[in-house]
Sequence to fold (268 residues):
Amino acid sequence: MADNQLTAHADLFDLTGKCALVTGGTRGIGRMIARGLLQAGARVLISSRGAEACAEAQRHLSEYGDVRAIPADLSRHDECRRLAGLVRADSERLDILVNNAGAMWREPLETFPVEGWDQVIDLNLKSPFWLVQALLPALRGAGTADDHARVINIGSIAGGVHVAGAPNYSYASSKAGLHQLTRVLARELGPQHITVNAVAPGPFPSQMMATTLEAIGDTIAAKAPLRRLGRDDDMAGVAVFLAGRAGSYLTGTVIPVDGGIATTATGT
Fold:
């Protein structure tokens, strides 16, 4: 009995035979997630705008499993469609779609520009929708009543869970929109054997957060209930949970992964 229980427990986080796409998978949170999915046994496709970044990330991640990198500028609708076509040509089914590619724009209210809205909304909010739309046949082909396909949207605690002090108007709005889009898609796609959930990260070391963490990273960590910043395994773990059998009865959720910063807000 003990052996059977151990095997069943291990299977909860086993992604062997699954195919995943992680957008923005060449660095930061996307790379953390890609590494976690590979270590759990999935075959992983990653995308990013730069061909050089894609090649470097593919070399680095290949030590963990079968990975392929595809350059694509997902702020453009036609590039979302092109990437989806390449993914479908690579594999008829897609078990896991991680919409992680994102952008940040910080500027004071008085001077915040039009492009600060357009670039951020296009990449953070519109591209996840376009990719779900274009990859729907592959997701439907992968999902079954016993084992749904998974969409995991990477939001932020700044998206309606926590109000940051930085002037990131379009970023916060785009992530709040992505959280609600997650719920809307979850309601529609659940009967089609596809779950849709979101992860709302707090402060993790990444290029997007580099300036903030360099300036006040120690202060943020000191005020967080867990007294630290996020680590690679923290993000990899929640992605594997949502992608595997362990997370099979969740859909429409937004999970803060922030060491308690937002959920126990004390002005951090």
